[in-house]
Every structure is written in structure tokens, then in C-alpha cells.
Design a protein that fits this description.
Helix content is about 45%, strand content about 15%. The chain is α+β, with helices and mostly antiparallel strands. The protein has one domain. It has a two-stranded parallel ribbon with strand order 1-2. Strand 1, helix 1 and strand 2 form a beta-alpha-beta unit.
């Protein structure tokens, strides 16, 4: 009996910094293990709007935490990420 070759399908939000970090990790994983990775781009904000949800950036506390988290992830990757202070302000 033949064993199945492991494969990864990653649906990633094209507008998400978090997804960029995951994309980089999966590419690294693919290179080290030769596991096939299938990337499927999506636009999560469009999906969320279609089903009636607001994207997190509409809520200031979620937006601020998201930017903080992205800055922290950037530091782990040796990147200097500085989101603008007035991003998405209305």
C-alpha cells in the first residue's frame, strides 16, 4: 500500500500582514521538508462584508492591538514595521 504524500493547502488573505508571516513560514517549511504547499489567495474583508461582519480595523482597540502584534512579529523576523498612527481613522 502506498502512503499518501503530505500536502498543505493554505488559504491566505492577500491584505493581511499576519498572512504574509505565515506565507514565509510555509515557504521555509516547504523548502526544508519538500512538502507540497498550495497557496490559495482570498480577500478576507470581502468575505466578511458579504456575510455581514465588520473587519477588525473598524474597532479601534482591535486595530491598535493588531498593529502592535504585527510590529512584534516584525521584530521576530528582523523587520522594522511602523504602522501609521492615523491608519483607518475616520
Amino acid at each position: 500500500m502506498l502512503s499518501k504524500v503530505p500536502r498543505i493547502t493554505c488559504y491566505f488573505d492577500i491584505a493581511s500582514a499576519h498572512c504574509w508571516f505565515a506565507f514565509e513560514e510555509l515557504l521555509s517549511y516547504h523548502k526544508s521538508t519538500n512538502t507540497p504547499v498550495n497557496f490559495v489567495p482570498v480577500h478576507a474583508a470581502s468575505i466578511m462584508n458579504t456575510i455581514g461582519h465588520k473587519i477588525p480595523y473598524y474597532e479601534k482597540t482591535l486595530r491598535d492591538y493588531n498593529f502592535y502584534e504585527v510590529e512584534t512579529l516584525g521584530k521576530l523576523y528582523g523587520l522594522n514595521i511602523n504602522p501609521p498612527d492615523d491608519a483607518f481613522e475616520t
